Structures are given as C-alpha cells and as structure tokens.
Amino acid sequence: MLTEQDVLLTRREVERRTGLSRSTLYRKMREGTFPVPLKVSERAVRWRERDIRAYVESRPRSYGETTA
Q1: Distance (Å, rounded) from C-alpha 49 to C-alpha 63?
Q2: What total of structural domains would you count in the chain?
Q3: 33 phi and psi, to 5 degrees?
Q4: Is residue 45 in some structural domain?
Q5: In a domain, 1, yes or no
Q6: How far apart are CA 10 and CA 28, in angstroms?
C-alpha cells in the first residue's frame, strides 16, 4: 500500500541510484535479489524509493583506496 510519503522512481532513476544496468535489474528481480516494481499503468512500472534505498544500503561497501 502506498502512503503520501512514498516516492516512486522510474527505471532510469533506479539505474542511476544503483549503478546497475537495465538487464542486471531484471535479472536480479528474477533471482529474487532485487525489489520488484509496482505496476502503475498498463505500460509503466515504478519502484518505491525506500525499497531502492534499503537495497543500496544492504550492499557491501568498498573500503579500499583507489589511485588515480
């Protein structure tokens, strides 16, 4: 159920926030390792921002330094 505070993200916004490609998003959804979007119309889906934020925060962090 959506509340007034739910922000819905497009696929492109999800790609930008996660760094994942479209094909990777859909593969991970099939595997059950990525949030499934809501169908908002016949041809459109959106992800809850809170679900994407939780996914990103659950990913391991890289602590190594990189050299330029």
Answers
A1: 25
A2: 1
A3: -110, 10
A4: yes
A5: no
A6: 17
pLDDT at residue number 4 = 63
Model confidence, pTM: 0.80
Least Cα distance to 29 among 21, 41, 37 occurs for 37
- Answer yes or no: is 67 within a domain: no
pLDDT tens string 5-26: 789 999 999 999 999 999 999 9
Read off the pLDDT band of 61 (50, 70, 90). Answer: confident
3 within domain boundaries? no
d(CA 63, CA 67): 13
DSSP bridge pairs for 38: 46
Q: Which residue has the tokens 């990913």?
A: 59
Identify the domain containing residue 23 by its residue range.
Answer: 8-58
Could you give the C-alpha distances from 7 to 27, 37, 47, 63, in angstroms and in order? 24, 12, 8, 30
